Structures are given as C-alpha cells and as structure tokens.
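Record type: monomer structure entry
Structure origin: computed from sequence
Chain ID: A
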Amino acid sequence: MPAATPRKSSRRRATSKSKLFVLDTNVLMHDPTSLYRFEEHDIYVPIMTLEELDNNKKGMSEVARNARQASRMMDEIVSASPDDIHQGIALAGPSRELATGKLFLQTEAINVVLPAALPTAKGDNQILAVVMHLAEKEPGRSVILVSKDINMRIKARALNLEAQDYFNDKVLEDTDLLYTGTSELPADFWDTHSKGMESWKNEGHTYYRLKGPLTADMLLNEFLYQSGEQPLEASVKEQSGRTVVIETLTDFSHQKNNIWGITARNREQNFALNLLMNPEIDFVTLLGQAGTGKTLLTLAAGLTQVLETKRYSEIIMTRVTVPVGEDIGFLPGTEEEKMAPWMGALEDNLDVLNGTTGEGGDWGRAATRDLIRSRIKIKSLNFMRGRTFINKFLIIDEAQNLTPKQMKTLITRAGPGTKVVCLGNLAQIDTPYLTEGSSGLTFAVDRFKGWQHSGHITLQRGERSRLADHAAEVL
C-alpha cells in the first residue's frame, strides 16, 4: 500500500498544472469528438456555446449534423455521470480513457464588465466574458480559449487572454512536409546498398533485393529515381525491416507505350501512369498545380482500361460543386445535366483525347465521342451515401474541397474491382473552414501512404502552356 502514495501525489501535481480550455461553438460544430481530444486537461463549455449549438442544430448540412452530435455526446456525459456538475464531470469513463480531465458546464451567471466597444448581446463577446471571469477566478492556472474563428482569437488576445486554434483536425501543420510519393537516391546509393544484392527479371521488369541504411525509411509503392549516366526509375514493391525489393517501371514516355495516344512528358507523369495502369493499386491520389496533367492522364488511363483492356465496366466522375465566384443558382435537368457546368475540365480533356484517336475523319471522331460518352457517368456527391460501385473506375476531381468525413464516405463506396483516383490542388481550396492542413485530400494522402494497394504522386511540372506556367509563378 505505501508504494501507491507517491503516485497519487504526483497525479495531484499533474492535475494542478492541467490547463482549462474554454470551447467556442465552432470547435464543437467542426469536430463533435473534440470533447475527448484534450487528454489530461479540463474543458469548459459556456452557456452561450450551448445556446449557439441549439440555434444551429436544424437542417441536413454537415454543420447541423455535427451540432446535434455534440449535443448528444454532452447529454451522454452528463446523464451517465454521478459527479456533481458544479465540481466537473470526469471524462475518463465516457471517453474510455482517451481523456482524463473534467468537463465543466457554466452553472452560474457571470457578470464581467467588457470594454464599451464590445456589445454584450453578441454571443462571441459573452464567451470572451466567461474566459475573462475564469482567468480572474483561477489566477494560477492557464485558461485558454479554443476557437476556429480568427477574429475571435484576435479579440481574445487584445483583451490579454490566451487563445488557440483547434489543431486536432489538422493532419499536418506544414503541408511542405506532406508525402510526395517520390524520393531521389543519392549518388553513392549503389555503393552503400549493393552488399548481398540480388537481381532478377520478370515480364520485362528488373527487380533488386537490397539492404542498407536508407531502406528502413522507404514506403511501399514509393517511387525512387536517380539521374546521371545510368538513370533509374523504380518503385518499392516489398519492404521488410531493412530489406526492400524495388521494381523498374514501364516507360510511358515512349510512344510505343502510349496510353490512348498520351505519353508522359516528365518523370512524375511517368510515375502517375504507372500507378493508374497498375491493377494491383486500388487507390491513387494525384496532387499538382493547374496544368500538370492530373485529369488528362487519369482519363486516358481510365478510357484505356474501360474500352481496350475491359478491366473496368465504366468511368464514374464526381466533384465538389463549390463555385469560384458567385453561385449561378439552381440548374435545370437531370442529375447529369445539372453536373454538366461543373464538368468543363472533363469536356476539355475529352476533346484532347478524342483528337489522339487517329484517322477516321469527322464520322470516326463523332462515333468515338459517342462511345466514350456512353462509358463515362457523371454523378453528384449529394447522392453517394449508401451506394456501392463494383468494377468501376471512380474519379474524384477537385478533392481538396472535401472534408475528411466526406472523403471517407466516398472512398468507402468502392466495391470489388473498383479503382478510386483522387485529384486535387491544395493551393485552390474554395470551401470555407478548410485549410491545406485539414483538407480531406491531405488526410487521405497521409493515412494511405505505405499501404500496398495505394499510391501517391505530387506532379511538379506544368505542361499546359508557357503562359499558364508563367501565370502560376508570377500571379
């Protein structure tokens, strides 16, 4: 028994240093599970936060669903707890030890004099008043406002209060650290990794089994390249401890390996086509600036595998309908007709691909266009829940505008024999409240890296035109 005493006192010291986080409404509406994300620290929910949750619970939007979920979670925590609500409710039980702090709800009227310029009728300012009250009430403790609202955080700091963004939803703080899918081998790679090397050939590909200092950090389906007198382009096929098997790639930059008349114009495009044409890869993510060829390469690979090799039955294309400028209102027609204005990129790329089908004149091109059209279906995201796509080539365009939850909903639609390709440019996020770090595309790239049936490539060079390349740099 005496051995337990010091442990108890150290726990008391830890809790006395624990912080008190005051949650703004937008944090709960963004991530209802945020109640369990503060580990050993305590959280405080002002009455105004509950009021704003109540005001936002109606409707079918993501925000309304999250507001209802947050309210349900708080109800479960409060109703299942024997603790006195004034003393705080322990979160260890409801969160299954994910959080060991306490949940405090505002149980008293707080009368704090705010600066005259801040009207007390506004919800944000009432939450700031609560933070001021708690900071005065517990001077020895760190009281921090957590809010997704930048202006709210600025106001808090202006009042000399601590404020932070909610970081738990961010996959990465810095998207420069995002997995690119490629790795350049150093000049001395073969000198340091050739001891005990095995090499063999199979179906036109050369395989190498290597062991060395760099192999432990390699990921499955990561692309390796080396420039110089003996250039190498390969991908990691197996990885076990410090031993890897790498496989040389098909050269899609050569005309004899063209895909629907399209050849790779640079190294990254060649890597992308190797992923898109590999039947063992079920999930592909392509990132890149405008004009790097994401949609063109994907459509060319899709058409080849649907119409020539018959690997998939049809191409399904979908995208998030977020306008760049003002919305043009409701659109007439069927689901496909409503989606047509959003699919300009598809039409432009089909024009290019249709011009590569060779001879046959206008009649031949028209027949090809009709055949291609019959094999491409355009679907809206709104009706995806509950569907299953079997043996389809599913393209999700503009995937940077998806939340992680929407991304999960879409990828889990894939049935047997379906390949999912996500395309996007993290520099062009049009959805409010989404950043490069919290985008569903960043989430998917980070979570799928290293899985044997997925691959990712970040396309670097623009191939659209010299005007487009220059505009991307200087504007």
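Annotation 1: The mean pLDDT is 83.
Annotation 2: Residues 354 and 366 are 9 Å apart (CA to CA).
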